[in-house]
Amino acid sequence: MNDLDRSHDPARRSWVESANGHAEFPVQNLPFGAVATSDEELPEVVVAIGDVVLRLAAAFDAGLGAGLPIDPAMAPFLLEQLMEESPETWTALRLELSDALSDPAWTPRLQSALLPRAGLRHVLPVQPVDYTDFYASIHHATNVGSMFRPDNPLLPNYKWVPIGYHGRASSIVVGGTPIRRPHGQTLGPDDTEPKFGPSRSLDYELELGLIVGGTNALGTAVTAEAARSRIFGVSLLNDWSARDLQSWEYQPLGPFLAKNFATSLSPWIITADALKPFRVPMPVRPDGDPQPLPYLQVPGDHTWAVELDVLLSTAAMRERGDTPFRVSRARFEEAMYWSPAQLVTHHGSNGCNLSSGDLLGTGTISGPAADARGCLLERTWRGTEPLMLPDGTTRRFLEDGDEVTLTGRCVRDGAVPIGLGACSGTVLPA
Ligand code: MN
Fold first, then answer.
1. Residue 173: enclosing H or E segment and its boundaries?
2. I want to staple 165 with a disulfide (CB 3.0 to 4.6 A). Which of 139, 206, 254, 295 is the partner?
3. What is the predicted pLDDT for the residue at 335?
């Protein structure tokens, strides 16, 4: 924890009054997003602070960031430029932002660079170059495994190798984008032949997305020592999954059309710098479990203390103005068998070129308790234990019109709490 700096100081306050005591975006957070302010202009990078956002290019015009290796003339690509730079540069820009937003002397220069946050049209902060999804929560892997293989829930490789699959980058959408129910091929339990039609088992998956910074040349491995410096930040990620398509298609090569029809990423990237006060050690591996192979032993490894909720709001609930129903709540730091840096290390261990803007999903985040299960497949145990909503309706899987919202927050003694924002999506009919 000795690399905390004045940007993490709990006593630091902003001249943006709404930031002080803000549940998600105090001056200690400063996440990056991108908004489209008009149809003609390219999207621009913004930083959330309280109830407003700071337009980064306008802040550069006002004198911020002078001396940093970032060209403000390339304004739509400020984040891409930043992520290519070293973590020291990431920290330097954060310090400039934090200093300027907490020093009233900057108010006259930055006031005109602020926009109200409500009603902004978000786009993806970075367009992921590539997307990989892991399976790193041991509770999720054990639950899902026990549904399909009651005698042998965890396959022998699980405690040795971080399991993942390559997802599809082009169908990643920003949170708030509606999700069309996919068609696909399914084989029902009593069917002798598959049929093609709308998925009847549409699900969400609560995940964090790690946003990679920097680039390693193809053929040059990412070492455990370097892995932590390759995590630029995190966003909430919903890996929408059609379970009926998945169960028919997944053998022997893993998920394909069951998952590549859409993946939602929340509008804000919470930087690794902002998460520093919330670093905690990884859970101790139980007696009898293997130690990670040497290449996966990350010096000073950690995870983050993040509380994550899944909220469900049906069309009828929204019509009545009901509060969304909390389906589950999990703690990230309890759920994972592999740390964020171990996922990066493993992905790059074969010389795979990870690039700025690559997205690594953690896999469904499920805690040990039943109400901490991060997808409906687990929460309703394959639909056998339907979820009872407050209005008496039930859910096995998602219905048309259902809105799923993921939220997250970091809380720890001695630190100002920060939020991850929200990642929402509403299911459209097939
Ligand atoms: Mn997933």
1. strand 172-174
2. 254
3. 97
Q: What is the pLDDT of residues 167-225, one digit of tens each?
A: 999 999 999 999 999 999 999 989 999 999 999 999 999 999 999 999 999 999 999 99
For residue 36, tell me if it sits in a domain. Answer: yes
Residues 20 and 109 both lie in one domain: yes
Residue 98 and residue 190 in one domain:
no
Q: Answer yes or no: 8 catalytic.
A: no
Is residue 228 in some structural domain? yes
- At 36 the pLDDT is 94
Kindly state the tokens that stand for 335.
């759920």
> What does pLDDT average to over the chain?
96
Q: Which of 122, 140, 346, 347 is catalytic?
A: 140
139, containing H or E segment: helix 138-148
Those residues whose beta carbon sits under 5 angstroms from the ion ligand 1 are 133, 205, 239
For residue 29, which amino acid is it? N
Q: What are the two backbone dihedrals, phi and then psi, of residue 160, each rounded to the nearest 5 degrees?
A: -110, -35
- What is the token pair recorded at 194? 């598959």
Task: Give the Å distance between the CA of 289 and the centre of ligand 1.
Answer: 24
Question: Cβ contacts of residue 134 below 8 Å, gap of 6+?
Answer: 162, 163, 164, 338, 343, 360, 361, 362, 363
Mean pLDDT confidence for 305-320: 98
**Centre of ligand 1 from the C-alpha of residue 132, in Å:** 9
Enter the tokens of residue 99: 């200093």
Interval between CA 241 and ligand 1 midpoint (Å): 8
pLDDT the model gives residue 39: 81
For the chain, how many structural domains are there in total? 2
pTM of the model: 0.97
The Å distance, Cα 428 to ligand 1 centre, comes to 20
How remote is the CA of residue 361 from the centroid of ligand 1, in Å?
Answer: 7
